[in-house]
Amino acid sequence: MALETPQSEAIWVYTGWERHALVGSEVRLSCSFFSWRWLSDDVTFSWSYKPDNARSSISIFHYAGGQPYVDNKGPFRDRLEFVGNPQKRDGSILIRNLDYNDNGTFTCDAKNPPDIVGRPSSVKLLVFDKVPVRAGVITGAIIGSVLGLVILIVAIYFLMRFLVARRVLNLSVR
Amino acid sequence: MLLLLLGIVLLHIAALVLLCVSTIVSTWVETSGSTADLWLNCSTTNGGSHCDPANTSEWIQAVQATMILSVVFSVISLFLFFCQLFTLQKGGRFFLTGIFQILASLFVMSGVTIYTVKNADWVPEAASYGYAYILAWVAFPIALISGFIYIILRKRE
């Protein structure tokens, strides 16, 4: 019997396309993969981060051999948490306390040996300021809806009266 | 009978005027040198007064909406009173008028309550309540009483 090296097939990595979040809030970057093979014990997830105007990326998270390793030196130290479930092919991470400097592209690379041929997938993070409510929007909405409700009730009342009167008319004609 | 009618209408108009004044005039809270209300924050500095539009938080917009609605409902109720005066049969009650007036009083109560509870967001700590705020609180029972009078009043001829 010849020893066969297992053929590797393609692995497909999925992340979101874009994530929006407010300054100071947290965001969950999800990453999962599709592979033809059963889940291996040597499954790995790697996240790397490239700021918006930078040319290279840095590695911020790695999961291998059943252990997650989070960034403890880089821009996300103490803010990064592994919230995925590798048994369910989920390698998601959670980033807390977002800042404008966190704008950039996050790339997830997953490997399920022997399926190692695949493209990493990237998700773009956009961190927003608080969006204030424009003056008068809620005021107008409340006034409009209450008056609309009143008009609706009045219309229904008159409709009922009209229908009842018509029915009485029909009954009396017969 | 005419005297009673006049009295009721005057009460209603008093409630309406209180509502209008408290909605429009700019003194819900005052600190030394500045006043603030639902629409503007005005401050007088060195002889000139300068007004900024009010904070656009959701709660103050809700208060604006309820105060406007209370004025609108009170006006509608006055209009309905005169309609019902001429179209109601003898012995009938001014239900619709009373209901609208009571709704107006409930709106002003909820508006002022929301303002009282949530004004920490947009009012400085050392502010005291101005007269427009007090007028709004006074308008609530007056409108409520006026509404109840309409409900128990029977039309006589």
TrEMBL record, chain A:
Keywords on record: Disulfide bond, Glycoprotein, Immunoglobulin domain, Membrane, Signal, Transmembrane, Transmembrane helix
Subcellular location field: Membrane
Entry membrane topology: Single-pass type I membrane protein
Keyword Membrane found: yes
Segments crossing the lipid bilayer: 135-159
Gene3D superfamilies: Immunoglobulins (2.60.40.10)
Keyword Phosphoprotein: no
Domain Ig-like, first and last residues per copy: 6-124
Protein name, as recorded: MYP0 protein
Protein source organism: Polyodon spathula (North American paddlefish)
Origin organism lineage: Eukaryota, Metazoa, Chordata, Craniata, Vertebrata
Gene name of the record: Mpz
